[in-house]
Amino acid sequence: MKRKIWLGILSALCVSATCFAFSACDFWGTQSSSSDTVSIEDNSSSTEKNSSEESSEEVHTHDWDDGKVTTEPTCEGKGVKTYSCECGETKTEDVPVLGHDYDDGVVTKEPTCEEKGEKTYTCINGCGEIKTEDVPELGHNYTQGVCSCGDLQTKGLKYTLNEDNVSYSVSGIGSCTDTDIVIPLTYENLPVTCIGDKAFYNCTSLTSVVIPDFVASISDNAFHNCISLVGVTISDSVTSIGMCAFAGCRSLSSVIIPDSVTNIGNAAFSICPLLTSVVIGDSVTSIGEGAFEYCDSLTSVEIPNSVTSIGREAFFGCTSLTSVEIGDSVTSIGDWAFIGCDSLTSITVSGNNTAYQSIDGNLYTKDGKTLIQYAIGKKDASFIIPDSVTIIGNEAFSFCGFLTSVVIPDSVTSIGESAFSFCEFLTSVVFGDSVTRIGNVAFHNCYSLTSVVIPDSVTSIGNCAFENCSSLTIYCEAESQPEGWHSTWNPSNCPVVWGYNGE
Ligand SMILES: [Zn+2]
Ligand SMILES: [Zn+2]
Ligand SMILES: [Zn+2]
After folding, report:
1. Which end of the chain is more exposed for a tag (fewer CB within 10 A), N or C?
2. Cβ atoms 58, 73 nearer than 8 A
3. Domains and their CATH numbers in the chain
């Protein structure tokens, strides 16, 4: 209604009908677009016709309908919407471009570990337009040192085809400069089954190594002298660790020998002075000679029930070793196995062991007749050998740093080679009257020993038996040197009193 009133005012002001009609449409035309104007011009004849009536009737103003899209817009082209008035006049208006509307896309090129892929999107409006986008490369995903694409995590190692032609050995560091090495599970699609002889010998910058599942053997000297090697992970496929395999690995701090390993080679872990922890798997049957010698930091070791033999010098010079537990099956312990284990206070043996037993932490044969190893780290000043003992084994008390007095009972017949050598605080040894033999160097370097009485039962004394006993006077019940005594039984010429009768 407001509109009608305004129209009335305007009609009164307007002289020319043409002028009015134009002004009204111009004034009221909400769209006032150029097309509106064009429409009016196109229909000028009807305007003229109407003008004859304008003086007598109310002026016509267009009353636009809701419009119809007369040209559909496309992804890239505008559409047209046309509005009509009942007077027959029309006007148009742009319909905005739709723009492309893309689907979710499909991967048209799969990415690989190292190369980008591609994803292609298609406009769902059917215009045929496509666009592409990169799919990032996947990156390698290593399992046991090898990616499914064949790429190796540790690159540049040297490999040698094994004689079986279906497996490889790692034979050298090659061009690899990594300090942390993961031996690959496979090489050229064949399993890597062996770390070859000296493969990493003297690789002084190597700090860690992982040995994967197909490796069955770590050969001799494989990691010998890898002085920076702190850690090694040995898979439970490995059955054999060769001679000196980890010898001289001066930084190696711990090792777990898996249950698959049956043999620990000679000197395999010798001179690993920082090795504090060793777990020996329960399939190991043989611990080689010197396997752990000079592992100065090793404090305890448990020999599992599978082990039957402990090699000569196996733990020689393990100066921090305080306890050794020996399992069911050990039937052979080589000489010097625990010599120089200055801290050793306890050697225990499984009750099921048929060859050995432990009494008060010392090692004896099962029958108790041979004292094999006194635990020389024990702080006791005196020791009375049990009267089951007939033989004091070679080196049984050697290097004992605490004992000052030892009593040898009447049951003992033989004192082994080097049995008391380097017992530097030993002042007194009392021999039982059944001793017949005193071995070579038996009391060698017992500087504190002041006197011994050698009963007339002794028929044999070995070479240098009392060498370097600088404080010693030797009292012999024999009237003169028996034939069976070695000519240099007393090479340092300690004073000897023959025919001693206790007075
Ligand atoms: Zn109209
Ligand atoms: Zn499109
Ligand atoms: Zn890959």
Report:
1. C
2. no
3. 2-95 (no CATH), 106-135 (no CATH), 379-503 (3.80.10.10)
Please report the beta strands in 141-200, taking only residues with DSSP state E, as ranges in sequence order: 142-143, 146-147, 158-161, 168-172, 180-182, 186-187, 190-195
Which ligand neighbours the alpha carbon of 152 most closely?
3
Q: Is the confidence at residue 132, as pLDDT, over 60?
A: yes
Terminal-residue alpha carbon distance, the chain: 154
| Region for residue 495 given its phi and psi (left: phi exceeds 0; alpha: psi -120 to 50; beta: otherwise) | beta
- 18 Cα: distance to centroid of ligand 1 (angstroms): 15
Above 80 in pLDDT, residue 338? yes
- Any idea which ligand is nearest the CA of 87? 1
Tokens of 465: 């038996």
User: Residues 375-418: pLDDT tens digits?
Assistant: 999 999 999 999 999 999 999 999 998 999 999 999 999 999 99
Indicate the angle between helix axes 2-13 and 17-28, nearest 10 degrees: 150
* Residue 131 to residue 34: CA distance in whole angstroms: 37
Return the residue matching tokens 């769902």.
124
Are 265 and 244 in contact by the 8 Å Cβ rule? The answer is yes
Q: Rounded distance, CA 93 to CA 79, Å?
A: 8
Q: How many CB atoms are located within 10 Å of the residue 1 CB?
A: 5
Cα dihedral 463, 312, 295, 377, rounded to 10, equals -60
How many C-beta neighbours within 10 Å does residue 447 have? 15
* Rounded-to-integer distance, Cα 319 and Cα 312, Å: 17
Distance 21 CA to ligand 1 centre (A): 11
CA of 345 to the centre of ligand 1 (A): 118
d(CA 183, CA 212): 6
- AA letter at 376: I
Could you tell me the pTM of the whole model? 0.77
The yes-or-no verdict on residue 52 having pLDDT over 60 is no
Contact between residue 72 and residue 93 where contact means Cβ atoms under 8 Å apart: no
